[in-house]
Every structure is written in structure tokens, then in C-alpha cells.
Amino acid sequence: MATTLMKGNEAIGESAIIAGCRFYFGYPITPQNELPAYMAARLPKVGGTFLQAESEVAAINMVYGAAAAGARVMTSSSSPGMSLKQEGISYLAGAELPAVVVNMMRGGPGLGNIAGAQGDYFQSVKGGGNGDYHSIVLAPGTVQELADLTVKAFDLADQYRMVVILLGDGFTGQMSEPITLPSPTGRSFDKGSWSLTGTRGRQTHLVASMRLNPDDALAGLNAHLQEKYRLVEGRETMWDSLQLEDADTLLVAFGLSARICRSAVSAARKEGVKVGLFRPITLWPFPAPALAAAARGKKKVLVVEMNAGQMVQDVRLAVDGAAPVEFYGALGGLTPQVEQVVERISSHVG
Amino acid sequence: MSVEAVAATEKVVYDRPSSLVDLPNHYCPGCGHGIIHKILAQCIDELGIRETTILVAPVGCSVLAYNYLAVDGCEAAHGRAPAVATGIKRVHPDCTVISYQGDGDLLAIGTAETIHAANRGEHITVIFVNNAIYGMTGGQMAPTSLQAQKTKTSPYGRNPAEVGYPIRACELLATLQAPVFIERCAVTSVKTILKAKRAILKGLRNQVEGKGYSFIEILSMCPTGWGMEPREAAAWVETDMAPVFPLGNFRDK
């Protein structure tokens, strides 16, 4: 199969076009600027629309409008910009609109820095905006996976009428790797029953999250959303694993941290320490049952993240005391070091 | 003889526009929204665009406008209606997209979206209902509240030394090159209502003809928020608001 050398951020752009996305709205922020630049150059060539918005806030609301109009639509940003999009994401969730939102995370809080980081796990997985809602959160760890999961993200968004967040990091977005561009899945989703197109002979459609009247209407919407989320939890968890069977210690990491942990697994095994890796690909829904099974009988579970300890909370809930859970985090845009991971594995097993 | 039977023998000279849903609305007595909804519906009927119109309603008193107009409707977050309208219009360039907004929505929380949608010359029609107060939340100071106007959050009167002067949207937008139509109207009398209707018609026709961005500001009454009788409120628009927000056309190209 032919491979192409592509930068992560550009691979997302091309894969979105392969998935049929023809609308992109965004605002510049490092380290994801290659993606809007790619869309600005490519979308007009395929009959699409690229629009640089006046703010992240405007961009996510343009996404809301285009999604309401029935289009496959995308925006992208990095951590501080994602904070600005949270209101719009909550509205998208409330109105059940499908959209793909890319966050190439950088160091925070505040302006932080422009290095890759994983500090937005809580924001992405636990909500971020107001109200009881979830976004589907995908955590790619390589450029190939950025491409593949971008295509998958559009199908998931349309199938469940949800926001899908592609949660990468600045480093992965900046990496160039040979990849095989994904193929279109060929799946199509009928939006005719709810999208805004002008009535053209049918009853009016309304896209809204507000439910003022009757009194129980908002409870009904919430019950419906929760039912949908349970369905997604049952069907759509994804994870990957490496050398679990004979492992004494289980590493748990996502994205770039997991990539570093793969090297740590090899390095530790060379020293005779039996280590395996569990890598959640969906951060929401979190693959808790699979992780619980993987952790059973292990001496230690070591969670490695590029933050001060966020996913580790979900790992503890999943493992539920079946094994001790430790944490190693690299802060402020630093990456975990293989030697450090190995050292912590060794210090915990023995 | 029933009313219908009598009506059948007569020539109908006035009827509910078909784009206006036959539903009691939630607006207060004397509020201008009902009038504006009606003339907007009349314009949609006259242009024959009901089935290709999409209405973006704001956060504020007119948040439920989509219940009263028989067109596809979209809710927007506070201040974001022009951005939402942009997304819709870019997907459906053949549809007529209306962003219906109040003063807090359009000129406070949504100022950036307002100016940039106008500056891009988005092919949308913005209907800006200026009643110099936040009605839905109970009468707070708006960006268009008049100097010395008493509201819940300016109980001693709007003091320009602390909170500045009322913002004039038409004049502000008229500094931009892209808009094709900018006009300020009122709905205080039959005469001003007819003029407002003509402006809305022009704004919608511009979009149908692919001309570009149109902005129609309508000075409107909020008797409840102002603590006035409806007739007194209409008079206040003419005596107090209009001198600050002069009626007239600011752009027609």
C-alpha cells in the first residue's frame, strides 16, 4: 500500500476531506496552525468552505450553524482556544448536533506554552461546558492514528449526533510520519428528519436545546441524552494493548504518553521486568471493563500522563482496588522519559 | 350565519400572514416584537420564501420567535446568532437566513460576531430590535440604554462617566465597506411600521438576489421593562430614543 509522508496536523485535514467534510471554521492558535492552513488551501479545491472566524467562540458557533444545516463540519484548536469553545460544545450537545472538534493540546493553565501536553483530559472527558453531557473523545497516538480516527470521528458524530473530540497533542500534530491515507467508510447518515434546509413542503424543523414548557421537557431531553450515552458506552469503547498476558506491571497511558510507554515496555523487558501496556483509544467512553480485566492479578498499575494526574482517576475507578495504582506525570509541556518510566516500574515491583 | 360563512361572501382585505403561526405569543402587552414578527411574516409571504427561510433566534425575549414563524428555526447561544447564521448560510446559500436579535445580544455579548459578520458581507439579513433594555432578564441596562435611563442595574440612571454612552449600531456598521443595506426604523405608528416593513422587505430581497449583508434596526417598545403604559412607551421611543438613534437609511447599494 502506498504511503505518504505527512505532518500530523495535515493528515487530519486530508482525512477529514476523505471523510466528506467540506466545512471548516477555525481561529489561529499554535500548535495546530498547519491544519487550518491545509484546509484553507484544500477545501476550495474540493468545493468546500474554509472560513477563518473572528474568534474561537464564533468558530464553534459557525460549526453549530453548519451542523444544524446538515453538513459534515469541523473545527480545530489548542487548549486555551478549546476553553473558549466549551459553551458552543454544550449547545451542540444539547441540540444533538454532530461535529468534529480537534484539540492539539498544549501546556497550561492559562497561556502556558506551545509544547504538547495532555492537561485537557478533564475538560474533554468530564464535560467542559455547562450541563450533563458527554462528547466522544478519541486519543490518537501516531500520525497514522490521527488520520484513521479523523475518518472514524465523522461517522461517530453523525451516527450518535454528538460532538467528537479528537484529543491529540502538540507533538503528535507536529510529527511527520509515513502513513497510509484512510479510505472513505462509505457510511451515510440521513439527516432529513431534523436538519435545517428550509421546509420545502415539510413541517418546520427546530434545532434548539431549550425546553421551557411543559415542565418536564428538559428532564425528558436529559433522560434521552443519558440513554444515548449509555448506548455509546456499551458499543464504542476502543483500546489497544501490548504484552498483557505475562505482565506483572501494567502501564496505562494514552496518546503520546502511550507511545513512550511502548518503548518503556521493551526497555523494562530487556531488564527482565515483565511489563504490559493498556492504551485507551476512547477516553470517553472510557474502556473501564477491559481495563479492569487487564489489571486483574497485576502487582502494580502505573499510569503515565503528560499532566498532573487526570486519567489516573478513571483508572482507579475502573481498577477498583484490584491492584495498586501509581502515577507518573510530566508537567508543563514536558514528555515522560523512558528511563523514568522504567525506573518507576522497577521501584514498584519487587 | 357563521363568521366563516359571512367571510366567504366578502373580499378579504386583511388576513394573518401564512408565515405567522396562529398561536398566542408570550410577549407583554405593548411589546414591539409582535408587530415586528407580523411584518417580517408579511415580507416572507410577499417574497414567497417561507419554504426556503431559516430563522436564527437569539437569547432574550425573542428566544421563542421560531415558535411564531412558520419557517425552519435555530436557537443560538447568547450573542452568537450571526455566527450560527454564517454556518447555515455557507451550507445553504440558496436559503434566506435571518438573524433576529435584541440589543444585549447584538451589541454587548455579541458585538464581535455582529461586526465581523457584517464586515465579511455575509449574505444574511439581521433584524436588530433595539428597546434600550434587557427585557427577558428583568430590565437591566443595555448597551443602547439612554443616558440617565433608569434600569435594574442603573438604578440612579445610566451615567456615561461610568458606563459610557449608548452605542449606535447603524452608524458603527456604516463604517464598514461590505454591508449593502443599513436602515434604522421604528414600530411606533402605522406610518413607521409601514416604513419598517419596507426596510425588512428590502433586506430580505437583497439576500434573495444575492446582494449581500443587510441590517435593519428597529426601535421598539418595552413597556414592562420601562415601567410605562404601552402608549406612553411608543411616545417615549419617538421623543427620547429617536433623537439618540435617528431614523433613516445609512446604506443602500
Summary keywords:
heterodimer, A: 350 residues, alpha/beta, Rossmann fold, 7-stranded mixed beta sheet, 5-stranded mixed beta sheet, 15 strands, B: 253 residues, 15% strand, globular
Secondary-structure map:
The complex is a heterodimer of chains A (350) and B (253).
Chain A: E1 4-7, H1 8-18, E2 23-26, H2 34-42, E3 49-52, H3 56-68, E4 73-77, H4 79-94, E5 99-105, H5 121-125, E6 136-138, H6 143-160, E7 163-169, H7 170-174, E8 176-179, E9 206-207, H8 217-235, E10 239-242, E11 249-252, H9 255-270, E12 275-280, E13 282-284, H10 288-295, E14 300-305, H11 311-319, E15 325-329, H12 338-348
Parallel strand pairs in A: 2-3, 2-4, 4-5, 5-7, 6-7, 11-12, 11-14, 14-15
Antiparallel strand pairs in A: 1-8, 6-13, 10-12
Helix pairs in contact in A: 1-2, 1-6, 3-4, 9-12, 10-11
Chain B: H1 3-9, H2 33-47, E1 53-57, H3 65-68, E2 72-75, H4 81-91, E3 96-102, H5 103-109, H6 111-120, E4 125-130, H7 160-163, H8 169-173, E5 181-186, H9 190-208, E6 214-219, H10 223-226, H11 230-244, E7 248-252
Parallel strand pairs in B: 1-2, 1-3, 3-4, 4-6, 5-6
Antiparallel strand pairs in B: 5-7
Helix pairs in contact in B: 2-9, 5-6
